Amino acid sequence: VTAVLSSPDFLYRAINTSTRPDEPRLLSDLELATRLSFFLWNTGPDEQLIDLAAARKLSDPATMKAQVERMLKDPRANTLIENFALAWLNLDELEKVDPTDGGFNAAMRGNFETEIRLFLASVLLENRSVMDLLDADWTFLNESLARQYDVPGVHGPQFRRVQLTNPNRFGILGKGAFLLRTSYGDRTSPVLRGGWVLDKLIGTPPAPPPPNVNTDLAVKDGERPTTVRARLELHRKNANCNSCHGLIDPPGLALENFDNTGRWRTIDALAKAPIDANATLSSGLKLNGPVELRRYIESHGDQFPTTVTRRLMMYALNREVEYFDMPQVRQIVKSATAGRFRFNDLVLGVVNSDAFRRQGPEETKPQNKPTVAKND
Fold it and tell me: For residue range 118-172, what is the model confidence (pLDDT) as tens digits?
């Protein structure tokens, strides 16, 4: 028993690599069933999937489509919310931000966590367009969270689906989980929020800050409090700093009406100054507030669906998406355009891609030295 439990064949999902550098190996039906099941359920295939694989029916497009739809309706598909969506959006560790606001507590953090899970599931697992992640006019609230958002008419501790009337709260940019995770305990951070928008939504992550650069924008003891915007503008006067911050800061500044706990504000309580949510992108386009920021992201057509698909393929393959994968990613997005990028269509595109159905040769080290085969 000890030998079995310590064997690499027990501990890893091993997939044999192709022996020909110019021809990736087609996965067997059983290997394909395993890869599919771990993609959608994060566990091994069930009896129905194994039976189909044993009968070599998974290569049939109609059979595969039926299985993907069946598996996405199964409760086990909720692992896509926990392991894919929350991890991709970096919203699975809200405890890393501890607001100093005396009114914020663990219960409100729990409300944020519940809302974002229910919201993501309502889009992805109900086969809606992934664009609804940006502009959905609904969310899930209880009375406490509704008060935090200034939404009237919600009573009791239970969560329920609520139709939103304030467009500033639409989509993921109006969710407390995002607004908290991209802040510091004592203030908002246009830099964190802007970088998050560029990376998670637009798919163009900014360069990391250079080593030893001063990133502390906190008000120093004895100094007159100023707004975060004013401190950033002073920081950007340095041309070296502005080369990056001129790209990163504007999307975050457009969200400054939200404080670090997701409440809407018009006055900076510390600086006792009005909030200015105007922003000028590096292209020269001017934005004011979260609604205009959302419309700007949506105006880029398939850029956001491409970001979602690339992340989805990365999750499905358990590896980085490389340059040679991008033609397949673009084709998946193009094929899903007619259905306005429904989530099931993107999943099915990933499952039917060569990257998912085939296993390439093992990468070699420099000087073409052979390497030990890796496990999937």
Answer: 999 999 999 999 999 999 999 999 999 999 999 999 999 999 999 999 999 999 9
CA distance 45 to 63: 15
CA distances from 128 to 189, 201, 336 (A): 31, 17, 12
> 3-class DSSP state for residue 208?
coil
Coil, helix or strand at residue 45? coil
Nearest of 205, 274, 270 to residue 244 by alpha carbon: 205
Q: How far apart are CA 201 and CA 203, in angstroms?
A: 6
What pTM value is reported for the model?
Answer: 0.89
**Nearest 5°: phi and psi at 38?**
-70, -30
- Name the residue among 317, 322, 321 with its Cα closest to residue 376: 317
Question: Exposure of 241 by Cβ count < 10 A (0-12 exposed, 13-18 middle, 19+ buried)?
Answer: middle
pLDDT for residue 326: 96
Environment class of residue 135 by beta-carbon count within 10 Å: exposed (0-12), middle (13-18) or buried (19+)? middle
